[in-house]
Every structure is written in structure tokens, then in C-alpha cells.
Amino acid sequence: LAGIPLAPPVELPGWEPRPGWTVRVRALGSPAIGTRLARLRIESAAMAAVASVPMQVAVGPLFVSPQTDFVYYSPPVVRRGDVVPTSGPVRGGSVVRVRVANYSHAIGAMPEAALQLRCRFGAHANGIVPAFHLTNANGTRVGVECTSPVALTAGHVWLHISANGQQYTAVGDYMVYDPPSDVSAAPLSGPELGGALLDTSKLNGHAV
What is the DSSP letter of 61? Predict the structure, then answer.
């Protein structure tokens, strides 16, 4: 009613969607009241294996939507050191590459219509940015890459990636920093063979 659910979610324990199965939902009420089913939200259950499940929507006995495949995928596996770089300035603009160990035969093998690749820097919606396939020299999809957004403050945030724009997987820690604006270093010259030790005394007004 006015966007407010009138009943709790209906759970179907142990149910796994399979080809040929049908779920029927009806809106019951007086025509004078205008009771109708305007939106149906179905939460996907777990599947035992990665699979593509055919899905159709039927309204009454006459209208049946074209078949759409709902794709189940394996969660991304990201190993330590596979996020580069692990830091960037608060102004954003850093291209971050995330290599995913099982990408080529999991998310990377999904049809484009089922993908909504996203990166999320931190826990809030303003940290969500589009992501794209990361490929190696052979053209094989090996992960995702995205550009860091503008951050409100410096500090550590968790970097997450998502294949569908809804469920996110944490892949590593990302440091947001203020770029150096006031650096004092001495000496400012040295021999061509190297060996000069530079002493940096200030970084953004803070002692180093």
C-alpha cells in the first residue's frame, strides 16, 4: 500500500529454481478498491552449481514475457596482492585493477546482459562507480578495473566489487590520502653517483 509491504516475505525452504517450475502470485480484492499486483520482487535462493536458469513472467492466461536467463555465478576469489594500486588521492581518478583468480570461468564468462559490474569504495552509495573487464595480453578476462571516486575524507576504506550491482564482495583495503601540498626537502642537489640523503620535513603541514 503506497509502497509499504502489507505482508512479510514468503519463504520457500529448500526451493531451488529449475526449468519448468512455475510460481503463481495473485492479488485478491474488490475491483472497486482497485487491488492489484504492481510489482513482484523475488529473492534468488542458493544453487548447488553455477547455472543459467530460464525465467519468464506470465500475466493472466494470455501474456507471457520472452524468456530471460537468470545467471548464477561463483563468488570472486581475490588473492592478497591482486589489487593494484592500494591507495589513491581524495580527488579520485586512480585506475584500480583487481585480478580475480576464477574470473575467466565465472563472472568473466557471464553474458553481458546479466552483468552490472561495479566497484564500491567504502560502505556508502557515493563510493559506487562503474567497473569494466580487465584483460591480459592474450585478451583473456582476468578481473575488473574501475576509477576511484572523489572521497570526502582521507583514511582507510574497504574496496568491494560486484557482478550484479547488488551483492558486493570485499577484495582488499584501500587507502585514501591527501596529496602532498607543502613539501620541504633538503638538500636539493647531489652527486651524479647518488648517495644524497633527502630529509623531508613537512607533508600537508604534518611532521613526517
Answer: T
